[in-house]
């Protein structure tokens, strides 16, 4: 991909946004505050999709390289070969999930951030699974509204920093909470829904995204390939307490992972609606829990419900059953 030339002003050169964050004498980056970081992010994620990618990434890299100059310069100063090499080096070092773009947490690692604020983006110890995520969600959604609101987010961040043995002033905490809310609140409703909080608080792995499971869960043909061993593996991954049933946070964690197979944007109401459909269709003994035999029904039903309109198997099989695209949770 050819590096994008910076947009030009009246003098034929652009205003380099990153230069303001460099020390005028040493040309090194100064420590970037929480509010400065938000400004940088919003400047380069121009389409607001949560990533710096494509032409946005080219523009960011060009300005990162040329910001060491004391004044704006023409695009000929940095060769295409040098920009290509810089892009490869930066992505190699900071693009942790190797998707060819920079997300918020990766940008935080790339810039010299205010130390306490940077800790909020640490990824060395992600949550073990979505079951642990749902336990954390319930803890901080204190009013059970289905959202993490500003005060609840502040409580979460305070506890997170305390776990790093860091204390911050009330003013800093308010700034951090406000910044994180603005960074991760994609629909700008002033609170974090489940899918938004999941970006802030990642889990080590969505078990159902493992190729062996994903292939089986996204088509009716794949569902036919599910073996008893596959069912047992999935069941054991979510039956965290070993009581032979998937219930409470285990069930909500399972539903969260299942939901992420088919849609990126979801909230607590979507999970509850999906849960009601699943239990109505597959909870044969009506105990509000899922045992191993019932889980087999859930996975097969989900695979059928995940089919597109043109994917119906021969014989007119409808594929009705528990699934977010079948009368269940869905964001239009």
Keywords:
15 helices, single chain, mainly alpha, disordered C terminus, globular, 48% helix, 332 residues
Structure characterization notes:
It contains 15 helices and no strands. It is globular, with a radius of gyration of 23 Å. The chain has 332 residues and is mostly helical. 48% of the residues lie in helices and 0% in strands. The N terminus and C terminus are likely disordered. The longest helix is centred in the first third of the chain and has 15 residues.
DSSP helical segment count: 15
The SSE order reads: HHHHHHHHHHHHHHH
> Quick one: biggest sheet?
none
User: Shape from CA axes?
Assistant: globular
Mean pLDDT, all residues = 85
User: What distance separates the N and C termini?
Assistant: 33 Å
Number of strands: 0
How many whole angstroms does the radius of gyration measure? 23 Å
Proportion in helices: 40-55%
Low-pLDDT regions? 1-13, 310-320, 327-332
**Residues in β-strands, percent:** under 5%
Helix and strand composition category: mainly alpha
List the helices and strands and how they pair.
Layout: H1 34-44, H2 54-66, H3 80-94, H4 104-110, H5 115-119, H6 130-140, H7 150-163, H8 170-184, H9 194-200, H10 211-217, H11 220-223, H12 228-238, H13 249-260, H14 268-282, H15 292-305
Summarize, please.
With 332 residues, this protein is mostly helical. It contains 15 helices and no strands.
């Amino acid at each position: 991909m050819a590096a994008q030339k910076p947009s030009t002003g009246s003098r034929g050169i652009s205003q380099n946004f990153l230069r303001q964050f460099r020390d005028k004498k040493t040309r090194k980056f100064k420590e970037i505050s929480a509010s400065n970081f938000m400004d940088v992010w919003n400047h380069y994620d121009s389409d607001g999709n949560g990533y710096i990618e494509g032409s946005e990434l080219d523009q960011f890299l060009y300005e990162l390289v040329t910001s060491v100059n004391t004044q704006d310069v023409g695009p000929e100063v940095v060769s295409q070969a040098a920009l290509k090499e810089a892009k490869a080096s930066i992505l190699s070092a900071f693009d942790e999930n190797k998707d060819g773009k920079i997300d918020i947490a990766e940008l935080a690692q790339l810039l010299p951030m205010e130390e306490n604020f940077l800790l909020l983006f640490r990824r060395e110890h992600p949550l073990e699974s979505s079951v642990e995520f749902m336990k954390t969600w319930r803890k901080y959604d204190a009013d059970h509204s289905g959202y993490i609101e500003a005060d609840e987010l502040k409580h979460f961040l305070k506890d997170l920093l305390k776990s790093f043995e860091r204390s911050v002033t009330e003013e800093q905490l308010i700034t951090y909470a406000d910044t994180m809310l603005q960074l991760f609140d994609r629909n700008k409703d002033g609170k974090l829904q489940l899918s938004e909080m999941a970006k802030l608080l990642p889990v080590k792995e969505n078990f159902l995204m493992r190729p062996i499971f994903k292939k089986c869960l996204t088509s009716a043909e794949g569902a036919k390939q599910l073996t008893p061993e596959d069912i047992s593996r999935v069941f054991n991954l979510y039956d965290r307490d070993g009581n032979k049933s998937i219930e409470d946070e285990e069930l909500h964690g399972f539903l969260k992972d299942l939901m992420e197979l088919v849609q990126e944007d979801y909230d607590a109401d979507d999970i509850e609606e999906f849960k009601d459909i699943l239990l109505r269709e597959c909870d044969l003994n009506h105990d509000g829990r899922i045992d191993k035999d019932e889980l087999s029904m859930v996975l097969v039903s989900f695979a059928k419900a995940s089919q597109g309109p043109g994917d119906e198997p021969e014989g007119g099989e409808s594929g009705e059953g528990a699934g977010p695209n079948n009368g269940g949770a869905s964001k239009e």
